[in-house]
Amino acid sequence: MKRLKSLLIVFFLTVFNAVYSQKVYTEKDIQIIPKPSQLLIQPGIFEFSKNTKFFAVTDFQKEIAKTLADKFEKSAGWRPEVSATLPQSNFIQFKVDQTLNKEAYKLEVNAKSITITAKGNAGFIYGLESLRQLLPTAIESNFVITTVKWQIPNVVITDEPRFQWRGLMLDLSRHFFDKNYVLATIDRLAMLKMNVLHLHLVDDQGWRMEIKKYPKLTEVGAWRVDQENVAWNARLTTNPDEKGTYGGFLTQEELKEIVKYAATKNIEIIPEIEMPAHVSSAIASYPELACFDQRIGVPSGGLWPITDIYCAGKESTFEFLQNVIDEVIAVFPSKYIHIGGDEATKTNWEKCPHCQKRMKDNGLKNTHELQSYFVKRMEKYINSKGRKIIGWDEILEGGLAPEATVMSWRGTKGGTDAAAQGHDVIMTPESPCYFNFYQGPQNEEPLAFDAYNPLSEVYKFDPVVEKMTPEQAKHVLGGQANLWAEHLANPKASEYMIFPRLAALAEVVWSPKEKRNWNDFTTRLPSLLERYDYLGINYAKSAYLVTASSSANIAQKQIYVTLKNEFPNPDIRYVLGDKNIDHNAIKYTTPIQFSTTAVLKASLFQNDKPIGKTFTDTILFHKAVGSKVLYLTPFNENYKGDGPFVMVNTIRGSKNFHDGQWQAWLVNDMEIVLDFQKQESIQEVIIGTLESQGAGVNFPTQIKVLVSNDGIKYKEVGQIARPYAANVNSELKDFKINFEKCNVRFVKVIATNLKKSPKGESSWLFVDEILVN
Fold first, then answer.
1. Where does residue 260 rank: exposed (0-12), middle (13-18), buried (19+ CB within 10 A)?
2. What burial class does residue 745 get, using C-beta atoms within 10 Å of its C-beta: 0-12 exposed, 13-18 middle, 19+ buried?
3. CA distance linking residue 159 with residue 123, whole number of Å
4. Count of H helices and E strands in the chain?
5. Distance in angstroms (rounded) separating the CA atoms of residues 514 and 535
6. Catalytic residue among 278, 423, 487, 622
C-alpha cells in the first residue's frame, strides 16, 4: 500500500512538473514578421521530435514539407518523416479550403497536431513560413544545437495579405549579380511573404539577358571597361574601340531556372527591358538603333543626361524590340513586362529626320507625344502576346497607354494621377522605397546614394495616399522596394542595403494597417536578425546606431551635443574620456555640455548591455574658436554653412555635405583670414575637408598657411601639395600643417581647388573647420 502511494505521488509530481514546467506563451513571444492579421494564443504547446511527421498528399506539399524537414535535420540532428498516411498525433498536415483567398492561410497548433489550411500552394507556403518563425531561431542553424527545446505555442493564426503586389527590384545592370544570388534572394523574399522579384535586366551600363537573335547584346553590351577604382559618377567616357572586361549576363536557361524556382515560392519574376532610354549598352552593340547610328562604348559609370536613346522614327527599332520581347516572353511567364520609360532626354529626337517624319506623319505635337506613341505601340504589341506593360511614372507624359500599369517613383503623384485615370499603380516612391539610399549616418555607412531612408521611415510608408478616393485606392496593387546598384559591387553589399529594411516594407504591404505599430515591430525585429545571423545574411545594424547633433554658443564657447536613436524611448548611455561603455555608463537625458576638449562615447543599451556599434566623437576646442572670419573669396551660396562662425565653432561636418557644417567653393580657391583680435602663440593649423568624387567634390591640391600681425604683410609658414588621386569612396580628411611656434594675430589659409576633374566637370572644394593650435 505504501509502495502504491509512493508511485502515485511520483506520478502526480511528474505530471505536475510536466504541466507547470511548460513555458506560458504571451503575444510578446510571437515574433512573426510580417505581423499576422489575427492571432489567438491558447494554453499548451506542440513539441517537435524525431517522431514528428508531415502528412502531405500533393507533390507540392511534399516539397515544401521537405524544406522544413531539411532545417530540422541540420539544426536538431533528426529529420521529420514526410508521410502520405495520416498519423494519430505529432504531425503537421495541409488542408485545402477553396473558400479562402489565394494567398490566405490558417495555422492551427494544438498539443497533438499542426494544421495549415489554404486554398492552394501560396497559402501553404506562407503558413509554413509563419510556422518557421514560431520555432526557435536556431532552426536556421547549419549545425546541430542540442540545448534547444523544439516547441511552439498552441495558436490559431488567420492571415492574408493587404496588397497583392509585394515586391523588390534588383538592379543587375549597374553591377552584375549571378544566378546564385538571385536564387538566395528569392528564399529571403519568401521568408517575408513577398511575392514579386523585379529584375532590372537592361540599363546603360550593361545588358544582362541573353537574346539569341541579337548575340552582340551580350557579346558587347554585357561588358564594360573596368573603372571600378573610380567613383561611379567620376568615370570617364568609354572608347567604343576598347574591349570591355567587367560585367556578365544570365543565359536564357539560367533565367528559366530562376523563374521555375521562384514559382515554388509563390514569387513572380518581372523582367524589365528598358525603352526608349537607359539603353546605351544596346546602342553600343547595335549603333543603328540610335538616331544617327552613333558608335559609343558601354558606359562604365554614371551617365547624365541620357541622350543616346532608341530612334523612335526607324521601323527597324520596333522590329528589334519586338524580336527581343518575343524572347523575353518565352522565358518569363509573368503577367507583366516592365518597359522602363524613364529619364529619356529627347534632344536627338528633336534633330533626327526619322523622328521628325514620324511626328509629322502621326500628327504628334512634340517629343513627349512621340514617347507616348513609342510606349503605346510597344504596349499594343505586348498586349497582343497576352501580357501587360508596366512603366515608370514618366510614361504618363504625352498620354498614358490604354492598359498600362504605372510604377510611381518620383513621389506618389504619378501613381495618384494614374489611379485617378483608372490605371493600376504600384507605389515605390524614392522616399522611402529606394534602398540604395543611406539608412544610417553617412560617417558610419558604406557608400550609398546621397539621401536618407532609415528603417523607421520605411515602416511609416503606406502605398495608399490619404487623399485618394476609395475607388482610386482599389487601383493600388501594392508597394515595392528598389535597389539600384551603382555602389553595390558584390552580394554582401547588396544584402546590407536590403535587410532589415525589407522586413519593414514586408509588414507595410502584408499586415492590416491598424495592426502596424513601430514600437511593436522593434520588439519583434531582434528575433528576425538572429535568424539572419544563422543564415549568414549581411544585414545592416544601422538602426541600432546612436547619432549626434551639435549646437554652439560661441559667446560662451560652449558646445551642446544631442544624442538620439531610431527606436522608441531609447536607452542611450555615454561616457567621457577613455572609460569603457558598460553598465556604469551615464544615462543620456538632456544635451551634453562641453567647454573643453573631450572624447564622447555613447551606445544604445538593451537589457543593461550595450548593443550596436559605439558612437565616438572628439570635441576639439582650439585657439581659433569664435574668431572673426574674413572671406577673401566668397563661398558658394548653396553651401554657406550654419551661421558666421561655422569655420571656427568646433562642430565637425559629416560625409553628408548637406548637414549645415560645410562651406564650399565651386572652381574658385578658398582664401580665408582668421582674426584672433589679439596675438596668440600658435604652431599648427588643421583644415578639415571632404572628398566625394562621385558628387564632384575633391580634396584641395594645395594648402598654404600664412601669418601676420597687421593683416597686411603675411609670411608663409607652411604648405602641403597633394596631387589628384582617384578615390572611389567618400572620405573626410584633416590636412595638418605644423610650423615653428610664433605669436600672431592673423592666419590666412589658401586652399587650391582642383577646378576641373579628369572627366572635365567643375570641381567643388568643401571645408568644415579651420583648427588652430
1. exposed
2. middle
3. 9
4. 18, 35
5. 31
6. 278
**Is the Cβ–Cβ distance between 663 and 647 less than 8 Å?**
yes
Structure confidence by residue, pLDDT tens digits, 350-359: 999 999 999 9
**Residue segments in the chain with a per-residue pLDDT below the cut of 50:** 1-20
Question: Of 203, 254, 394, 507, which is the active-site residue?
Answer: 203
For residue 256, what is its C-alpha cell?
528559366
The strands making up 558-564's β-sheet, listed across from edge to edge, are 547-553, 558-564, 592-594
CB atoms within 10 A of CB 98: 7
Q: Determine contact, residues 507/522, Cβ cutoff 8 Å.
A: no
Q: Between vectors from CA 695 to CA 694 and to CA 699, what angle results, nearest 5°? A: 85
Specify the residue for cell string 492574408.
160
Grid coordinates of 190: 519568401
Question: With contact defined as beta carbons under 8 Å apart, do 274 and 309 qualify?
Answer: no
487 labelled catalytic: no
pLDDT at 22: 66
| H or E stretch covering 460 | helix 455-460
Beta bridge partners of 390: 338, 405
Active site residue 343: yes
User: CA 371, 356, 321 angle in degrees (round to 5)?
Assistant: 45
CA distances from 190 to 34, 183, 197, 214, 506 (A): 11, 11, 10, 34, 10
Separation CA 394–CA 341 (nearest Å): 6
* pTM of the shown model: 0.93
Give the whole-angstrom CA distance, residue 111 versus residue 151: 10
Alpha-carbon Rg of the chain, whole angstroms? 31
Q: How far apart are CA 43 and CA 539, in angstroms?
A: 35
Residue owning grid cell 604652431: 683
* Site of grid cell 479550403: 97
Catalytic residue, candidates 73, 81, 343, 462: 343
**Which pLDDT belongs to residue 398?**
80
Distances (CA, A) of 115 to 58, 83, 730: 15, 15, 53
- The rounded distance, in Å, linking the Cα atoms of 592 and 479 is 41
Asked whether 477 and 471 are in contact (CB, 8 A), the reply is no
198 labelled catalytic: no
Provide the residue type at 643 as one letter: G
Position 20 scores a pLDDT of 44
